[in-house]
Amino acid sequence: MEWNFQTAEELAAALRAGEVTSVELTDEAIARIERDDKAINAICVPDFDRARAAARGADQARARGEDRTLLGVPVTVKESYNIAGLPTTWGMPMHRDFVPAEDAVQVSRLRAAGAVVLGKTNVPLGLQDLQSFNEIYGTTNNPWDHARTSGGSSGGSAAALAAGFGALSIGSDIGGSLRTPASFCGVYAHKPTLGLVANRGMVPPTTPALPTDLDLAVVGPMARTARDLTLLLDVMAGPDPLTLGVAHDLKLPLARHQRLSDFRVLVLDEHPFLPTGSAVRAGVNRVADALVDGGARVERHTPLLPDLAEAATLYMQLLFSGSGARLPVEAYEQLRTRAAGLSADDQSLGAARLRGIVFSHRDWIEADNRRELHRHGWRQLFAEFDAVVCPISPTPAYPHDHNPDLLERRLDIDGVEYPYLDQLVWAGLATMPGLPATAIPTGLSSEGLPVGVQLVGPMFEDRTPLRLAELLEQRIGGFQAPK
């Protein structure tokens, strides 16, 4: 039997039933990687010897009567997570030899659940791109079309899942880095509520692995089915044992509904700053039609929706404000001079990014206060709706573009070019207020490329969009293996 495209849930059941061993699953996964990954380049740091040893250990544990959630299931891990004994570079050539001494907390949780780690997956330089390429490990290609990007920054993980390299992966997201690669490669991902999943050890090379609270950024699960997302989120979720975990236990609320007919859903496909391409609009409509056919209450407009233009501006300012603190003084002063020269009438997203980079602390506090107003607006909206369906990216995967200046790159939306970084607006809809968002595949475009959308839910009610994802998977289908 071909096991590589089976779900984690199916693999765990087969392992429990004695239909297969972890050694067999691991050897089959490694053989597939060695056969197919030369063309895709998803697994940038293989760890096959230790994976085989872990698989033998998993089989021995099962023979002793042990049973853990992922015992013996092969998985991959984004390169940016620390794994003891393997390099963590974030694609930065200066750090190609950095090897951390201990695992990130999420790698520890994977191992505690019994998972077999096959290796690490490729990322862009510094995790700062929606494509995955760097000078150390090269370019990760989209399994559906090798001339196109797999997305970023968790592009290696998404490509690995689409290619059958392990049943699960873990990634991170601040600018759609879980959701965009999932959309481009036709798999599932979940951006958890901000603060739900501990991130210690997912840090730049040489940075101390401390339990810090990052603004906007989260870590989360990736899979080939919605049910597997929930399975892996349950392994990952919970506070850091060094901080909030000292006093807090996690108890996520149940999904609001179990039947599609009980859901109240707002569907969006228009943004004030950027058009939605025809392929993505068709994907949104496929989901909307499935909701209506399933008896859900679907609306296209509501006065409760927070202002999307202000939300996008706030997101860009908050996102880029973190960059200024790390810039050399001379470069920072040059940008501050440029920002001061902007016209007050310039309310473009490019202007928002530039102003954000040179934010003062006072500026940031003001923006953070406005964010809280948006969060409250979302609370009011989710009193009337259970989820929001909207794009992740305005287009399917696009051709590789390695121009080192992201400001010079352009995004083609149905034949019209737009600034490359403006595509972040849909990812920011959930990221800025810290909402959970589940990326689901909706089928293929006319060019044969995967198209995904996101299901955005109420804060800390992650099980609600995840359950909706399961129900939609049953109606519109889910993952398809690349031909």
UniProtKB/TrEMBL annotation:
UniProt keyword terms in alphabetical order: Hydrolase
Single GO molecular function: amidase activity
Any single Pfam family the record assigns to this protein: Amidase
InterPro entries named in the record: Amidase_CS, Amidase_dom, AS_sf, FAAH2
Domain (Amidase) ranges: 24-464
EC category name: hydrolase
EC number: 3.5.1.4
NCBIfam families assigned: PRK06170.1 (NF004816)
The protein's name: Amidase
